[in-house]
Amino acid sequence: MQELPTLQEIEKVSRIFKLLSDATRLKILLTLEQGERNVTSIAEVVQMEQSAVSHQLKLLKDNRMVKARREGKTVFYRLDDQHVFDILEETLEHIRH
């Protein structure tokens, strides 16, 4: 029989699902699955103000769902790793089934 996850692991999983439960953050993550983008580009795709997108990106970055790199004055964002998109893809497959 497999051991149950620790309370700390359960809390981390819960935090991830809370982040993914927001439609705006989902749109941002799905946009970044297509490749690295700056805030202006992301805001255009998700049709939101840059300040709102920046706020959501900070939450995603703080929880290791996206990474950022600076090039001059521009910050580019990308998915932290493939696991983030795998979670989204599995969920989309589930609802389409």
From TrEMBL:
Protein name, entry field: ArsR family transcriptional regulator
An example molecular function term from Gene Ontology annotations: DNA-binding transcription factor activity
InterPro entries listed in its UniProt record: ArsR-like_HTH (IPR011991), HTH_ArsR_DNA-bd_dom (IPR001845), Metal_resp_trans_reg (IPR051011), WH-like_DNA-bd_sf (IPR036388), WH_DNA-bd_sf (IPR036390)
Keyword Transcription regulation carried by entry: yes
Organism: Enterococcus aquimarinus
This protein's UniProt keywords: DNA-binding, Transcription, Transcription regulation
NCBIfam families: HTH_metalloreg (NF033788)
Domain HTH arsR-type: 4-97
Family annotation (PANTHER family): ARSENICAL RESISTANCE OPERON REPRESSOR ARSR-RELATED, HTH-TYPE TRANSCRIPTIONAL REPRESSOR CZRA
Bilayer-crossing regions: none
Gene3D superfamilies, sorted: Winged helix-like DNA-binding domain superfamily/Winged helix DNA-binding domain
The keyword Amino-acid biosynthesis is assigned to this record: no
